[in-house]
Amino acid sequence: xxxxxxxxxxxxxxxxxxxxxxxxxxxxxxxxxxxxxxxxxxxxxxxxxxxxxxxxxxxxxxxxxxxxxxxxxxxxxxxxxxxxxxxxxxxxxxxxxxxxxxxxxxxxxxxxxxxxxxxxxxxxxxxxxxxxxxxxxxxxxxxxxxxxxxxxxxxxxxxxxxxxxxxxxxxxxxxxxxxxxxxxxxxxxxxxxxxxxxxxxxxxxxxxxxxxxxxxxxxxxxxxxxxxxxxxxxxxxxxxxxxxxxxxxxxxxxxxxxxxxxxxxxxxxxxxxxxxxxxxxxxxxxxxxxxxxxxxxxxxxxxxxxxxxxxxxxxxxxxxxxxxxxxxxxxxxxxxxxxxxxxxxxxxxxxxxxxxxxxxxxxxxxxxxxxxxxxxxxxxxxxxxxxxxxxxxxxxxxxxxxxx
Length: 404
Hints:
The protein has a domain at about 75-345: Glycosidases (TIM Barrel). The longest helix has 25 residues, at about 25-50. α6 runs parallel beside α7. The relative contact order is 0.18. The chain has helices at about 25-50, 85-95, 110-115, 120-130, 155-165, 170-180, 210-225, 270-275, 280-290, 310-320, 345-355; strands at about 75-80, 100-105, 135-140, 190, 230-235, 255-260, 260-265, 295-300, 325-330. It is an alpha/beta fold.
């Protein structure tokens, strides 16, 4: 997704991020949905506990001493890009009931001035990052401007040739200087995301060789700024798309994290399909392990399969069983769970699994074991046989907390 769009762009869904007009979801409706999901999760968990070969626990649902849970994956949500989103993220945190330590924003890609970083955006997010040492700031940075105006491949290829020769270095130097000055010199930079698709000007397929050289120039330029400690996240969209994303990989020395944007699409696919499809979740984890890199999920959420709590469960278990640096859900319709009233069952499931305290995913079979750094070690993060599932009551909604 981008500053203006979300998910893989097939032209079928308008996904503007500038403003959000959200229908209200009453507390009674959300409470009913939550109760239904909790009841279903509880009964499914009991069935799974009886028949699975998962780790057995005592009556209290605690792990054996030799299998202590690992900390949950740092989480966040995209709730907007500008300064107003910093306040909105506080509302999401209150609703969820657990610390939200990942802030996620996008630089506007309409002009090079936007890619250099709007002062108010950088100041607000830098202040948010500096307020808590546990926090990490994730910034999606376009590689070319304008980023979301369609251009023929021949034009994109020519732009990439110029970029690879240094035509745009100055813009990334200015961005790095501004981030360092704002206290965000350790931000995670998601550069040229979803490069394997056709949505963005800064895509890879028209000229993969020049695209990789350009990526390397940007990283070298930003790292050269005094005080810079950026980490660079190479993030394709799940699946093959216009080009295999592995053909765009610029090299281990200029990539710190290998991410993936993964939405619940296309229609009719199961989570197992997302794992096994070519260039899907398993391929992503395998590739990262082979290159000695951790993984991330800068964008994920519901989409073509509507309100689908099974997808939320699947992603929760995938995060818990892999070496994930961070994950941030895209929280607006149709993808979201807090600010989208269209997904009440998934909203309840998200709060159940990611809220305080986070729980193992109930009723889901173990994810395929991959081994190595990106696979499970002594077991999934926080894994155990399914404990008693507590009731989750919707205490704070976006409307009630004054966040819209």
